[in-house]
Amino acid sequence: MLEVNNLTKTYSGVKALDDVSFTVTKGHVVGFLGANGAGKTTTMDIICGCLGSDSGNVTICGFDILDQPIQAKSKIGYLPDVPPLYREMTVTESVTYAARLNGIPREQVVSRLEEILPLLSLTDVSNKLVGSLSKGYRQRVALAHALVPDPEVLVLDEPTEGLDPNQIAQIRDVILTLKSHKAIILSSHILHEVQNLCDQLVIINKGKIVTTGDYESIAERYQGRSYELSVRHYSDAVVEKLTGLDFVTDLTKTDRNVLHFELEEPHHLDQVAELVLQEGYGIQKLAPLSSLEGIYKQATA
Amino acid sequence: MKTFLIAKRDFKSGFSTPKTGAIIFFVVALISIFFALFIQSYQQQANPMLGGGAPQTPPIQHLIRSLVFNFYFILLLIIPAVTMGTFSDEIKSQSIRFLQTAPISTASIVLGKFLSRWVTVLLAVLLCAVQPIFLAVYGNPEVPAMLSAYLGLVLVISFQVAFGVWVSSLTSEQFIAFIFTMLGLFSFLMLDFIGDTLAGSSGYVKDVLEYLAPMNHFENLTNGLITLGDVTYFLVMTFGFLFFANVSFDSRRWR
To answer: Considering CB atoms only, which of B6, B17, B102 is closest to A73?
Structure first.
């Protein structure tokens, strides 16, 4: 449905994107991960035709975004990082405008609005001016713009930015209900959110794709090396003791009493546990760091 | 069709702030004051008892001409104010992405935005229809000549609005767009004078400059002379600048 081939983009001599390629197919939610400035927004802007690439191309349902922009854009719904909104319109007017510009006939707009507004809990504010809404509401109005034409490809740039936990859960439910008949790509730096939503990952670092694939295979690839240890009685001596072991590498203190480290072999874990207990620091938690956080850290290191 | 959707939205949103209303009020007030002054001096010329020289009634078309010329100068201030936000505002608030990602052609966007501003200015002109109607009722104007003068006005407005729309597509700062539109329109006005000063050097340069000066074409129309050349001039200028705006909007994604 969405194919991105060999995108390269240079901003005043700095390579923002370097040979970026991936595909998103129907029925999948792809998590697009990367640090700030890694090239997520640039990629999404290029996908949606807001930005041109130096080389490479993007096809949406078989239409090239630059050669057949109108056909391609009619298949795509985009939520940019800054919600593009007209502050002087009411929510209903604004979503109606988006629907009409996307070619939905006048008589179908009302029924479409009746579907979309409750889905995003915008019914209460439907007659308020967009400019008077709080950030979370505005974000959802912009999402309504993207959803109202019922596009086949959804490109969401940090869709849950600025929302409270309940709203995030709601957006997540919306995305999961849409998932079955759409190709969705969403960027985020809230990792557990990506973990819950996405079945495939694209991790980008400094403009280059570091890894792509489905979540399980990536997790497997990176698993078994990173571990997390939290001790009950922390002192700096723990760090010294652990760095003394030659199979412990990359030791970092991430919280008051939490350490992240890598091991050469899984069975070394026993020796680490033994050491910590012998010295009387006490173990609160000792577990492999197989979550997305671990993957992300390793992939972008 | 989508062109009209964009035009309608932009036109309506112009009235969401007092800006457009204030501009229209400004036009109507100025034109009314000048019209009263014109009538006064016209009466002085027509009636020696009021202080004029020998009694000679100038044709009423003179009044119409003064009126539309007056419009021309007021428009130099008004058009930049109306067009400055056309694209600048949307570039700044990033709502431009809404249009960039909608399945519409750039030409529709540019044309829609042009139409909304064009109609806004024409609305101000329409509200100043009181004066020509007044003349038609109490005077005895040549109606075709009067219509020709107004056709000239509409064409000048098209050209100026198109110019302003283009300038606005070049910058994200409304104020810059305002200044440069005014500067540009003023330069177009000056072309005629520049042509005159250069007259000594080369006839060819003078011809080109005089052809490019909108005032020369406008003048013919205010005299009731509608020629294909003058109308074509304004249409070419209008669509030329709209084409530039189109290119500038499209090229935004490569910058």
So the answer is: B102
CB B109 within 8 A of CB A58: no
What tens digit of pLDDT does each residue of B120-178 get? 999 999 998 888 888 888 877 788 888 898 999 999 999 999 999 999 999 999 999 99
Q: Lowest mean pLDDT: which of A87-91, A253-257, B111-115, B156-160?
A: A253-257
Q: Which of A57, A100, A139, A143 has the highest number of chain B CBs within 10 A, making it the mutation to test binding with B?
A: A100
Q: Where would I find the H helices in A202-267?
A: 215-222, 236-244
pTM of the model: 0.85
Encoding tokens for residue B68?
Answer: 């539309």
Helix (H, G, I), strand (E, B) or coil at B28: helix
ipTM comes to 0.86
Q: Is A49 an 8 Å CB contact of chain B?
A: yes
Q: Which residues of A182-196 are buried (b: 16+ CB within 10 A; e: fewer)?
A: bbbbbbbeebebbbb
Structure tokens at B54: 């020998």
Q: Does A244 touch chain B (CB under 8 A)?
A: no
Q: How far is the C-alpha of A237 from the C-alpha of B190, rounded, in Å?
A: 82
Query: Nearest residue of B to residue A93 by CA position?
Result: B9
Residues of B within 8 A of A87 (CB-CB) are 93
What's the count of helices (H) and strands (E) in chain B, helices before strands?
12, 0
User: Bridge-partner residues for A249, per DSSP?
Assistant: A262
In chain B, the N- to C-terminal Cα span, in Å, equals: 30
The answer to whether B94 contacts A87, with C-beta atoms less than 8 Å apart, is: no
Cβ of A50 within 8 Å of Cβ of B253? The answer is yes
Indicate the SS3 state at residue A47: helix
